[in-house]
Amino acid sequence: MKFIFGRPIDEPFDREEEIKALNELISRNQPTAVLGIRRIGKTSIILNVLKNQNIPKIYINVEDFIEGKSIDIIGLFSYFSSSLLSEAIKFMEPRKRIPIVLKEKGEEAIKTLREILGYIKINFNINLGKVEIFLDSTKKGGIKESLKELLDLPQEISENINKKILIVLDEFQYLKLGEQNFPGLFHSLRSKWQFQNNVEYVISGSAVGMLENIFKKNQPFYQFFFPIYIKPFCKDKSEEFLSEGFQDEGKTFLEDGIKKAVEYLDGIPAWLNYFGIKSVLECRTIDEKCANKVIEDIYKDPVIQVIIKDEYNKLGKNARKILKFIANKGGEGNLRGIELSRSSINEGIKSLFNEGYIERKDRGVYRIIDPIMSKIVTML
Ligand SMILES: Nc1ncnc2c1ncn2[C@@H]1O[C@H](COP(=O)(O)OP(=O)(O)O)[C@@H](O)[C@H]1O
Ligand SMILES: [Mg+2]
């Protein structure tokens, strides 16, 4: 195993149980939500499952369609349907795929579909051996009706190719922003999805509180998804992860160096990887002195600072103030002495919960979950 930073991987360390659970839930046709804070390894777990599921599947990161404070729903659904079509073509029986001309036509059409930012109407008829996509900009009911039709596409396709289809929507909570322009979007999703017995939906999300709101009573997705919670590595696993990594990199390391790093990084895989790479580059031997220095360097690293700053700046005024206040108390504490009204505190705390940045320890005592964030916020 080599340390890697930033990009998700498809063979994550020590996630066998989570992977097994997700595969099992998929085989039962159980809609599933993979939940956990940022950088904990959700996407990596999902990529492993996608790699090994031998059925038509599509993966969409909803976050890729965020534009400022809104979401490009049309872009997302165009991508959704064209990915679905491309994938379906792969799984069609050869006899249906012939003549190849038809396939090419299909792909051409898919390209057009990708490009179009207008109303979309699709007619999909694999049984007759052809893929037809009609783009209809004048249709009555407009875009809203077209979107509803697109929601039927997965089930239609799966019936046509006679195979189950797996659909993964990563960072799903952002789809909620679509309700600004398409009120009732989630309601439509739920009402379609719950009858699509050939389509398996897996979603994931970092903003844990926000997702939990989506699953609340009286919300469209109440009692729909089965949750799998992804936790940080425990101390032992974190140490094992670093030790194995250094071993594979051919690096000498001492136990106290590893222990020190884990003490600061708290079992968050992304940070453990970053520490791994940095210490391989910076130290001859990974000992306590090296660990201390590398950790200090991580706090000062512009790349890391930008990541944290970006997340911090997306928060509202109250949330930022509260986060900083707790960070200045060492990452955990109560809010006594903070200069905010009660209602501002409530609002700020709620948004920090929603984003998954803090957890409640005791009554009135909060903890910033990510230790690197906690440290860097004090410097902003
Ligand atoms: N189990 C793991 N073993 C090794 N590296 C991991 C593991 N989980 C996550 N990582 C690394 O941490 C970073 C964040 O992982 P990712 O799957 O993108 O997390 P998330 O989707 O929860 O934000 C990636 O660089 C990834 O390679
Ligand atoms: Mg992810």
From TrEMBL:
<dbReference type="InterPro" id="IPR036388">
    <property type="entry name" value="WH-like_DNA-bd_sf"/>
</dbReference>
<dbReference type="Pfam" id="PF01637">
    <property type="entry name" value="ATPase_2"/>
</dbReference>
<dbReference type="InterPro" id="IPR011579">
    <property type="entry name" value="ATPase_dom"/>
</dbReference>
<protein>
    <submittedName>
        <fullName>ATP-binding protein</fullName>
    </submittedName>
</protein>
<keyword id="KW-0547">Nucleotide-binding</keyword>
<feature type="domain" description="ATPase">
    <location>
        <begin position="13"/>
        <end position="273"/>
    </location>
</feature>
<dbReference type="InterPro" id="IPR027417">
    <property type="entry name" value="P-loop_NTPase"/>
</dbReference>
<keyword id="KW-0067">ATP-binding</keyword>
<dbReference type="GO" id="GO:0005524">
    <property type="term" value="F:ATP binding"/>
</dbReference>
